[in-house]
Amino acid sequence: MRAKTLSDLLKESDRIAVSNITGREASKVSIDSQSYCNNIVGGWALGKGGQKITCGKGDDIPVFANCADLMKGLPPEKHPNKIVVYSPPQAVYGDVKEAITYGAGQIETIFVITEHVSVEVTAKIHNLAEAAGIDLIGCNTLGIINAHDRIRVGAVGGDDPDESFTPGSATIVSNSGNMVNTIASYLASAGIGTSFGISTGKDTLILTPLADLLQLAQKDKNTKAVILYVEPGGLYEAEALELARSGGFTKPMVVYVAGGALEGKSVSLGHAGAVVEGGATSASAKATAFDEYFGIEPLDIDKRYRKTAELVSSLKRGIRVRSLHYIPAATQLVFRLLGIERDTPVKRKMVLNPWFVNMQDWGKRIPSRLILTPGKAPEPWGGQFRRLIKSELGASPSRRAMKNLSHASSNDGEVTRIHGRDLPELMAKRSFAEAVILYWTGEEAARDFEPKLVEMCLIAALTNGPGTISAQGAKLSASAGNSPNTAMIATLAAIGDFHGGNGKLAVKFLANVFRETPLIDPYDPDHGLDIEAMALETARKFKKTKDDKKEAGLDYERIPCLGHPIFNTKEVNYDPRERVISAYLAENGIYNVFLDFYHKLAAAMLEVGAATKIWAVNLDAAIATVWMGIAWPRLRDRSITFNRAADLAFLGFALGRVAGGAGEYLDHRDFGTPMDMRIGTKDTTALTTPKPLGKP
Amino acid sequence: MPVEIGELTFLEQLAKQFDIPVPEHLAADASRSEIRSALERWGGRGIVKPDILAGKRGKAGEISVVTTAQEAMRKLKLATTVEIKGRTARTAYIAQYIPSEQEVYTAITYDSRWLGPSFTISMTGGVDVEQIGDAKKKTIPIDIFKGLDAYQASDMLGSLGCPQKLISLLSRTFVSFWDMFITTGMRMAEINPWRITPDGKIYACDFKGVFDNSNYRFGEYGRNLPEYPEGKTELEEDMAEWDAASHRGQAHVADLDGKKVLPILFGGGASTIIIETLLEYGGDPIFLSDFGGNPPYDRMYGTIERCLKHKLADASLLLILGGKANNTLIDVTFQAISDALRDYCERNGPVQIPVVVGRGGPRLVQGMLTLRKTLEDLKMPYVMFGPDTPITLVAEYAARLADVAGRKSLNDAHDKPFDNTHDRPFDNTHDRQEQKI
Question: Which of A87, A165, A486, A671 supports an S-S bond with A95, CB 3.0-4.6 Å?
C-alpha cells in the first residue's frame, strides 16, 4: 500500500475526478458530494466532453471526453489526486488503465464503485495499480468518508452525510456499503462519532484487504476503535487477526459477523464475494476466530460487566456482538472500561420508535404487548414531515422518465382508452365535459352535476366579444392568411396570467385559505366552517397588506378574480355569467363552499374598508370554484397534485376560449380582406427620434 | 450468480478444445452394443457417473465401476435419477476406467492472499483439498497478465516430489488447464484427480468449474452450456430472469421455504442480517431478498409485482425493511411498492395482513407518506419505523407479530397468553441496554 495512514486515502485537500460522470448514479452522487464537500474537480465520459454538471451548491463540474483531456484541460492546481470510477463493468479496465497512464505521479488512490466487474479484470487492475504505486479501493465499494475533514468520495452518507456522520473516534470498516451508514447512525445515537467510514466492497477479491486497512487505522490519531461488519467468504479476517496477533494492530475492534444463521442453507447472499469456499471462510469460522483472539464471549446484553484486569485486557483487543443493534452498547462498554471518552452526549436511545402506527381492526385482536405506541420522528425527519404535510396539499408522486409512458391514455392496437376507460364507450355514453373531467383528473366526475357546470364554464369562456385579446389573436392570424390551427394557436398564445389565467391564481388563493381547515366535501353546506369569519379575516389581512404597501409606495397583490372592468358601476356588482352558474346551483339545491366564500369575501371587503363597493365575483372566479369543487376531494386524499388542480381552472378557460377563437377565425377568414388588421404607419406614434449608427 | 459446470460438459466441450487429455466416455443414451465395444476397448472396466452439479459424488455412493454392458445400462438408468444435496442429475454417462498408481490434485482459483489467480498442486489426488495436509500441497500466485508457465509448474512438481519422468508432460498439460481457465472466464476450476497410468499417460478424471458470469469471455461459452435441473422455485426462476434483464438495481431472491414473513429487503448486508434475525425469532421468512442498488421505478415495480404474485397469498406479514440507504431513492422505491400493492389488491381483492416498514435514506419522508397513504387506502394494518430504530429490532418485532398473525384463528392468540419466555417485552419507552452497561 502506498497510504501510510487513513487520511492518505482521503483528506480535505484531495481533488477528485470521476469517470463516466454523466451516468445516472455518478451525476447524482457527484452533485450531492459537491454540496457536502465540494471536492470534485472534473469528470470524464466518452463522447460527452464539453458538457458541465450543474451543481446547486458547490462548483459546477466540467466534463471531458476522456482522462487524458481532463489532465490537459484542468489547470495544474486542479489536477486530481483521486479517481472515482463509475464506468460500466466493460469499461472499468480501460478507465483504470487510462487513469494510471495519464495520472502517473499524481494519482494516489482509485475508488472503483462499479458492481459486476469480473474477477479477472479486478485482478488485472490490481496488478496495474500495484506497479504504479496507486492504492485501489473496490471493486463495488460505496466509497469512503473522512468525518473529521468532512470529505467523502462515492455515496457514503447518501444525500445528507451529516445526518449520520459526526466527527469522532470510531472507524467503520464494512463489507456492505449500506452498513457503513447504518452503523454510523447507530453509533451517533450512542454518542460515538466516526473518524473514517470505509466500504470495502464485497466482491470475490477485495483489493484493500482488512489487514491493510487496520494498519492504516493503527496510525490514524482519531481512531480509538474499529467497528467491523464482516460477511462470509475470503480469508481477509484471518490475515487481519494474524496482523493483530503479531502486534501490527493494537486498537480494540467491535465485530459483527453476518451470515451465521444461514450457514448450511444453500442460499446465495446478496454480495458476489459472500461465498463460502473452504471451511475457514464461513461466518461461523470467522466468528470463532475473532472470539478466540478477543478471549471473551460475544457481548451478553443482559450481563453486568464488572471491570477486571482480565476483562480490560480482552476489551483492548475487542468484542464481538451477535446482533447489529448491540454494536453501540458494545462500543460503549469498550470505551467505558478502557477510559475512552464519548465524542458527544447520547443523542437518542436505541429502542423501537414507530413513527406511524395504525393497526386497524388488528388492534383488538393481537396481544397488547405487540401494539406499539406511536413515537415521534426525531429531527431532521420530524421537521421534514411537518413541512411536507403542511406545504403539500395534494399528491407528491415520485418522478420518472415518461417518454413512452402515460397514465392519461393508452392504445393497445385495438382500443384507445382514457385512464383505462374505452374511448368508444365514452363516445356512446358520456358527454364531452364528462370525458374531459376523466381525462384531466384521472377519475370520472364524482357528482352528476359537475359535467353540467363544466359545460356552462366552457360556454361562458367561448367569448367576451371581438375586442378581447384572445379573439384579436385569432383575427390577426386570419388576417395574415394563417391556417385554422395557427389561428387557434394565436388565440391560445394571447391568453396568459393577465387574461384567462386568473383562475389559476384563484385556485392557489382558495387553497391557501382552506388548506388548514378540515374541509373534505366542498358541496356540503354543513361543513362546520364559519365562512363569514374566514372571509372577514381574509379581507382584513388583505387590507393591512394593501395599506402597508401603499404607505411604502409599493404595488400590492390583488385578490384574484374579484372585480370586473365592465361590471363595476353599481353598489353591488355581479358578473352576469357568474350569475348563471349561481342560479343553476340555487335551482338545483347545490352548494359550493368556494363560491360562497367568494361572495362573502366581496361583502367583507366593503365591510373592512378595503373596497368602496361590492365587487363582482367574476367569471374566472366562477370557473375556478367549479374546478376547485371537482379537485378538492382529490387534493385532500392526495390522488392529484396541487399543480394539476391549479391548471384545471386555466385549462377550462383555455378550452372554451380556443373554440371561441375558432369562431372569430372563421368569421374573419370569410369576410375579412387580407391584412386588414394592419395598423397604417400614420396611425402609429414613434416614441424615439432618429439616430445615426455608431462606428463599427 | 456464478455458473457451475460438471465433468460431462468438460468432457464434451472444453477438454477437446483445450487439448486436455481425458478418458473416453459415452452418454446415457448409448446403445448396448456401443457400451459393449467400449468396455472391450477400455480393458473391461468403465465408471458410471451421474451428471450432477454437486460435489462428492463418490462419497455419496453414486459412482460405480461396471464390467458388463448389462450392468452399465442398469447403473446408467439409476444414475440419471440421483439426487445429492437437493440437486438432481441432468443425465448420466459412462467413462473409461483409468488404472493408476498415482493421482494428482490441481486447482486454479482467485486467491484473497495475492489478489489474483493462484494454482495449487498436490501429489495426493482424489481427496478433498482440505483433507490434504499443508506439507503435501503447494500453492503459488499466477501473474494475471503472463499466466501460468510450464517452468513454474515444473518447479512446483519438483518440490512436491513428483517422479521426474512425469514432470514435463504434467507441466505442459497444466498450462493447457490454465489456458482453459482464463480463456473461458472461469472463477474457479478443479481437476481432481489426474490419474497417471503405469505407462506414464495422464488423464483428467474429474472436473468441477465455476464461471464468472461478469466476465465477457464467459458469454460465448455460457450460451452452449447445458441446463441443469436446479430445483429452483417458480419465483426464483421468474426473479432470476428478471434480475438478468437489467443491471440497474438488484432483484436477488433465494427461496427459504418459509411460511410467515414476506420480506422485501434492501442492501446485501442488511438483507442477510434481517433474515438472520427473522430466523432467530421465529419469523420464518419466505425468502431472502436484496432489492437495493437504487432501482428505478419500473425495475422496483416489476420486482415487487413478482414477489406479491408468487408469495403474498401465503404470507402472514409483509416486511419492507432496509438500513439507511446511501443512494437508493426511498420515494421512488416506495412509490413502486405502493403501486404494485394497489394493483395486486385491485386484481386479487383486499389483503388483510399487517405491514411492518423500516427504512432510512434519501427522500425518506416523501416515500413514507406515499406508502402510508397506500396502506391507509388499502386498509392494511401497519407500523412504520425510521432509521432511528435499528433494523434488527424492527425484524425482531416483525417476527413476533408474524407469529401471531400467522395463526389460523386470531382468537387463539387472544385467549392464550403470548409466549414471552425467551424475550424481553417490547418496551419502547426506555433503553435497557443503556441502563445495563
Answer: A87
User: Considering only residues 74 to 133 of chain B, which have any Cβ-Cβ distance to chain A shorter than 8 Å?
Assistant: 85-86, 109-110, 112-113, 115-117, 129-130
Rounded Cα–Cα distance for residues A308 and A291 (Å): 18
Residue B39 has pLDDT above 50, yes or no: yes
Report DSSP state, residue B355.
E
Catalytic residue among A116, A126, A148, A271: A271
A425, with CB counted inside 10 A (0-12, 13-18, 19+), is exposed
Q: What is the pLDDT of residue B81?
A: 87
Q: Which pLDDT tens digit goes with each residue over B88-130?
A: 888 999 999 999 989 999 999 999 889 999 999 999 988 887 7
Contact check, Cβ <8 Å, B269/A271: yes
| Same-domain status, A372 and A498 | no
Residue A306 has which C-alpha cell?
A: 464488572
Nearest-10 Cα torsion for B422, B428, B432, B433:
90
Number of folded domains that form chain A = 4
Residue-number span of the structural domain to which A258 is assigned: 164-263+270-351
**Is residue A399 assigned to a domain?**
no
Contact between chains at B269 and A236 (C-beta distance less than 8 A):
no
Exposed (0-12), middle (13-18) or buried (19+): which is A267, by Cβ within 10 Å? middle
Nearest CB among B110, B392, B404 relative to A205 is that of: B110
Of B217, B240, B243, give the one whose Cα is nearest residue A118.
B217
Which chain B residues contact residue A362 at CB under 8 A?
354, 381, 405, 410
Q: What's the angle, vertex CA A240, arms to CA B326 and CA A251, rounded to 5? A: 80
Contact B292 A274 (CB under 8 A): no
Answer CATH for B1-22+99-229 from 2.40.50.140, 3.20.20.140, 1.10.287.3610, 3.30.470.20: 3.30.470.20
Query: What pairs with residue A606 in β-bridges?
Result: none
Give the residue, B82 or A219, on which the prediction is more confident. Answer: A219
Cβ–Cβ pairs < 8 A, chains A and B: 337
Q: pLDDT tens-digit profile of A5-51? A: 999 999 999 999 999 999 988 999 999 999 999 999 999 999 899 99
Considering the domain architecture, whether residues A125 and A247 belong to the same structural domain is answered as: no
Q: Do A375 and A255 fall into the same domain?
A: no
The whole-angstrom separation of Cα B218 and Cα B215 is: 6
| Distance to chain A for B344, nearest Cα, Å | 16
A88 and A199: one domain?
no
B1 and A268 within 8 Å at the Cβ level: the answer is: yes
| Nearest-angstrom CA–CA distance, B376 and B342 | 11
Lowest pLDDT segment from A98-107, A221-230, B334-343, B427-436: B427-436
What does pLDDT average to over chain A? 92
Shortest CB distance from B397 goes to which of A119, A160, A352? A352
CB contact under 8 A, B392 and A325: yes
Q: Where, residue-wise, is CATH 3.30.470.20 in chain B?
A: 1-22+99-229
Is there a contact between B414 and A182 if contact means CB atoms under 8 Å apart? no
* Helices (H), ranges, B223-262: 234-244
Return the percentage of chain A with pLDDT > 90, whole number.
75
Q: Which residues of B touch A116 (CB under 8 A)?
A: 214, 247
3-state DSSP assignment of residue A184: helix
Q: How distant is the Cα of A208 from the closest Cα of chain B, in angstroms?
A: 9
Lowest-confidence region among A223-232, A525-534, A634-643, A669-678: A634-643
Active site residue A116: no
Averaged over A206-229, what is the pLDDT? 96
Residues A122 and A226 in one domain: no
Overall fold of domain B234-415: Rossmann fold (3.40.50)
Q: Which pLDDT tens digit goes with each residue over A354-379?
A: 999 998 888 777 888 888 888 889 88
- What fold is seen in the domain B24-97? Dna Ligase; domain 1 (3.30.1490)
DSSP at A57:
S
Residue A4 clears pLDDT 50, i.e. is over it: yes
Whether residue A565 is found in the same domain as residue A625: yes
**For A363, which residue in chain B has the nearest alpha carbon?**
B381
Q: Where are the CATH 3.40.50.261 domain residues in chain B? A: 234-415
Q: Which chain A residues are closer than 8 Å to B185 by Cβ? A: 118, 120
Distance in Å, alpha carbon of B177 to nearest chain A alpha carbon: 16
